[in-house]
Amino acid sequence: xxxxxxxxxxxxxxxxxxxxxxxxxxxxxxxxxxxxxxxxxxxxxxxxxxxxxxxxxxxxxxxxxxxxxxxxxxxxxxxxxxxxxxxxxxxxxxxxxxxxxxxxxxxxxxxxxxxxxxxxxxxxxxxxxxxxxxxxxxxxxxxxxxxxxxxxxxxxxxxxxxxxxxxxxxxxxxxxxxxxxxxxxxxxxxxxxxxxx
Length: 197
Description:
The protein is an alpha/beta fold. Helix content is 41%, strand content 17%. Helix 1 (20-35) packs parallel to helix 2 (48-59).
């Protein structure tokens, strides 16, 4: 298999959620990555939206890299169909490896794990630990409340507009992926995040 054209880190729920639009969006994301010769980097599970985006990527001809802590191998049902499945010891190691292997990041609907991963990689970006673009896929208004709160934080003086500008939010999966991959460009220098976080 040829070297992937780009690598997208996807954060999303290990549950499917109540709205079928969530799973449909995960399929669209995975299919887009695969059809454009890309690589998915994700949390290594086969349940919920995690499994959906991985299977869609695989079915569309993309590479799938999963990173999962040993403690979650059974709980999140590790996806043995990944092209690479890395079983690590800690969540910190998981998140650093996922970030290192990616050119860009996108958060789909999910729970506190998804929120935490997005906010951490966003924080790393504002601190200059990496310069990779970040996206928030707002499926069926799922993140409307979060985006509203973030704007409230800016208005309240705890965040700057430039920090909000680091996060691309959209309801259009394909348009958001195009923007992120184009913004990433072809020549990202590897950042040894495990050494700095």
